[in-house]
Backbone:
């Protein structure tokens, strides 16, 4: 019978080969970052923004604005 041109084994092999030769699931060409590092960096960014809000409320509001 022989190997047919459109066999499922050949198609699966091509799919696997295409997936490996690409740059990954994201399609980027840069360095990959582990999920743990991404989580730590995002939590750090959120904490930094919260600290900036607190500093802005405490030190950058004029003193007379709250008194009437």
Residues:
């Amino acid at each position: 019978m022989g190997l047919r041109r459109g066999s499922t084994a050949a198609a699966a092999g091509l799919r696997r080969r295409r997936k490996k030769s690409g740059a990954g699931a994201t399609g980027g060409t840069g360095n990959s970052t582990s999920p743990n590092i991404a989580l730590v960096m995002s939590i750090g960014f959120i904490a930094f923004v919260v600290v900036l809000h607190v500093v802005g409320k405490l030190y950058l509001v004029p003193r007379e604005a709250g008194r009437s």
Summary: The radius of gyration is 27 Å. The mean pLDDT is 75. The helical segments are 8-21, 35-59. The chain is about 55% helix and 0% strand.
